[in-house]
Amino acid sequence: MRKAPPYRKSGFFNNKVMNPLLTALRLAPSLTIRGRASGRKYTMPVLPLDYEGRRYLVAPRGNTHWARNLRAVGEGDLRLRGRTIHFKATEIPAAQRGPIVAAYVEQHGKKYGGFVAKEFELMPDPADHPVFLLIETR
Fold this sequence. Notes:
Strand content: 25-35%
CATH architecture: Roll
Number of strands: 7
Oligomer: single chain
């Protein structure tokens, strides 16, 4: 039987205070995605990575709910710099994530008081962090 990929659940403060605040005040880019079972729309802050001419989303906490939803639904909306971009997503195979994850940590590691770097220290294997290539559709 295959072991489930690791996932570090965020705490009450992040889920109920910080993430809704960052999203409502548009202080961070945000991802809106349909739930894989409910179909309900969920919005959360994300840190997209532009790397080698392509845009990616990386899940610092591992196999998060947004990563599972994106994997199942395959599309979403990214609000970035006052613009909403609809995209299709393709998951990058685990063996190919290393350079993308390294670039992500380099670019975003110090944000939010070092939160991003800390997550990758706790789960250092790039294979544990889902990575999605985003292709703008409109």
